[in-house]
């Protein structure tokens, strides 16, 4: 099978692990930097060139698109999709996952528990905003035009007022979100591949810190999800449209809420915490998707139902 990894660098941990896993299974792997791709449309045909050379037949593309090149990178993913290539996460699903507000809207519309969230352009009624999400502490998420999301934890009305003043000064939209109390609960990340959870970890912030993000020193340990939590993670990825996703959840107060669904989950911290090979399941999924599509074509050619 001919696999393209769309990534800025082959030295990145996740890209390297996916490449190793694919080659170990006998596949031809090519790394393409999305910003070095040219997209050509002529006479009803679409082609991809890389560094001036036409990219030949490809069976599957695994996108690892950085936020810094999101718009161009997603256009490259879409172009491969127009050529009929199997995409292990298509451009529309990646875009929805990266728009945190739309992602929450989609999840809530399907009845999936999400933290109480308010989007507003007027910060003058701070107490009202805070009241609608259950009081301080709260998360303030800056919804930037480039798709990035800045996150601040505000533990008082005063700190919230200062944060919103800064956000509005930048001319950006924001959401105020409930900060779920983790005491007695669990902060979880589940890696979903296809229709199953292949790994799960529990995240523990440093003592005295409210921050929950991996990049701020949280410690990870392997976790066992309940059957309901695993099903929730798989359903959340499905609602967003992702074949591969990291689903962030918090278990507290007798409920499990979904905070985020991530389209390009990093494998390094998850592999180190679980001791598992998490690249191979993604390659196996690509194989299955290609085989399924090929089988459907064969059945149609034979007059079958496919």
Please write out the topology.
Elements: E1 2-6, H1 13-24, E2 28-32, E3 37-42, E4 45-50, E5 53-54, E6 60-63, H2 70-82, E7 86-87, H3 91-98, H4 100-109, E8 117-120, H5 126-132, E9 138-143, E10 149-154, H6 157-169, E11 173-178, E12 186-193, E13 196-204, E14 219-222, H7 227-240, E15 244-252, E16 255-262, H8 268-274, H9 280-301
Description:
By secondary structure, this protein is of the alpha+beta class. It has 3 domains: 2-89 and 286-298, Rossmann fold (3-Layer(aba) Sandwich), CATH 3.40.50; 116-178, Dna Ligase, domain 1, CATH 3.30.1490.20; 183-263, ATP-grasp fold, B domain (D-amino Acid Aminotransferase, Chain A, domain 1), CATH 3.30.470. Helices cover 35% and strands 29% of the residues. It is built from 9 helices and 16 strands. The protein has helices spanning 13-24, 70-82, 91-98, 100-109, 126-132, 157-169, 227-240, 268-274, 280-301; strands at 2-6, 28-32, 37-42, 45-50, 53-54, 60-63, 86-87, 117-120, 138-143, 149-154, 173-178, 186-193, 196-204, 219-222, 244-252, 255-262. The protein has a 5-stranded antiparallel sheet with strand order 14-13-12-15-16, sandwiched between helices. Strands 2-1-6-7 form a 4-stranded parallel sheet, with helices on both faces. The chain is globular, with a radius of gyration of 21 Å.
